[in-house]
Write a structure and sequence with these properties.
The chain has 15 helices and 11 strands. The chain is of the alpha/beta class and about 375 residues long. α1 crosses α7. The longest helix is centred in the middle third of the chain and has 26 residues.
Length: about 375
């Protein structure tokens, strides 16, 4: 699928992605799914497609460059000079030491949006230090709030890497592109995972300010303490998610479970533990899917806790095409949905860089030189 043929709301957008892990390839994947033409600059020898690299899908081209080699840096600058967006995930100062300072890049390409994704941000005492998702969200209050009373639980790497990092980077760069449509000028987007995970905590800080949230795990309505907002183990050792917060939904849930009396004083925390234990006993009498059948057609806010191997076959996911299979690999479909300009997965793999970069105004001899040095 060529740049002209690509569909989606971001068709025509040219993005350079510096190879990294976590939020950078995730953000580039989303941009590609929505129509952008993404060229990924890999390390030499790492520019081959692997269908198992889900977050690397849809790249228009991948090219290996040694950014410690001045000639390769010069070639990278030529590519970036033709782009709308650069996404990088190096530690602060690395891009500058490589000879790719955002100021210099924007001097050559005044409309360039330089999106810098880090854990701690471009400044601050911790900015030069190493870290990972778990350490970044530790400073935001998010990690402290998740898990049972006796200790926090890592929420995979969804809160820092992908929510606080990748999604924040996407919001930032798309906002900068909107501003550029009026000013004609690019800018640097500083997307720090600790900032993003902190931003995602806004509602909980609101609840705490209102006296509706305790700064202790498993004491609040949304952290597993409430009997009506929890996951329960069933007889077959699979789980069911229960979330009927509103009274009308709780009433429907309680009727199926035979605990109509739980509707009284639903929000009294002093009753939650006893009621959770009672519900756990009841859920253990039947298998997960039996319980789901019992709730069929009811607004009781109940759902099966699906394993990754089950998600594609769930009727709702299947009807919406929420998951797809490509080259034998099950993976999420592009999202969100658009009524007029839907996104889509790009072709089967990255194309010849020469054909892509020619459309970016990069001379064929430059592409040939890049290809030769990347071998």
């Amino acid at each position: 699928m060529s740049g002209a043929e690509r569909k989606g709301p971001l068709a025509g957008l040219k993005v350079v992605e510096m190879a990294a892990i976590g939020p950078v390839p995730f953000a580039a994947m989303v941009l590609s799914d929505l129509g952008a033409e993404v060229v990924r600059i890999d390390r030499p020898g790492e520019d081959a497609d692997d269908p198992r690299e889900v977050t690397c899908r849809g790249r228009a081209a991948r090219i290996g460059l040694d950014l410690k080699n001045p000639e390769d840096v010069a070639q990278a600058r030529k590519i970036i000079a033709s782009a709308d967006v650069l996404i990088e995930g190096f530690r602060p100062g690395v891009l500058e030491r490589l000879g790719l300072s955002p100021d210099d890049l924007m001097a050559e390409n005044p409309g360039l949006i330089v999106t810098r994704v880090t854990g701690w941000g471009q400044d601050g005492p911790l900015s030069p230090r190493a870290g990972h998702d778990l350490t970044y969200i530790a400073l935001s209050g998010a990690l402290h709030a998740i898990g049972p009373a006796d200790g926090p639980v890592p929420p995979l790497n969804l809160v820092g890497d992908y929510g606080g990092g990748g999604m924040l980077a996407l919001v930032g760069l798309l906002s900068a592109l909107f501003e550029r449509s009026r000013s004609g000028r690019g800018q640097v987007v500083d997307a720090a995972m600790t900032d993003g995970s902190s931003l995602m905590m806004a509602y909980l800080f609101e609840l705490m300010a209102r006296g509706m949230w305790q700064d202790r795990r498993e004491t609040n309505m949304l952290d597993g303490a409430a009997h009506f907002y929890a996951a329960y183990r069933c007889r077959d050792d699979r789980h069911i998610a229960v979330g009927p917060i509103e009274p009308q939904f709780h009433a429907a849930f309680a009727r199926v479970m035979g605990v109509e009396e739980f509707g009284a004083d639903q929000y009294d925390p002093a009753l939650w533990l006893e009621r959770r234990e009672k519900l756990q006993e009841i859920f253990l009498t039947r298998d997960r899917d039996d319980w789901i059948s019992a709730f069929e057609g009811l607004d009781a806010c109940v759902a099966p806790v699906l394993g990754m191997g089950e998600v594609m076959d769930h009727p709702h996911n299947a009807a919406r095409g929420t998951f797809i299979e490509k080259a034998g690999v099950v993976q999420p479909a592009p999202a969100p949905r658009f009524g007029r300009t839907p996104g889509a997965l790009a072709g089967e793999g990255a194309r010849d860089p020469a054909s892509v970069l020619a459309g970016w105004g990069i001379a064929a001899e430059d592409v040939a030189a890049m290809r030769e040095r990347s071998r």
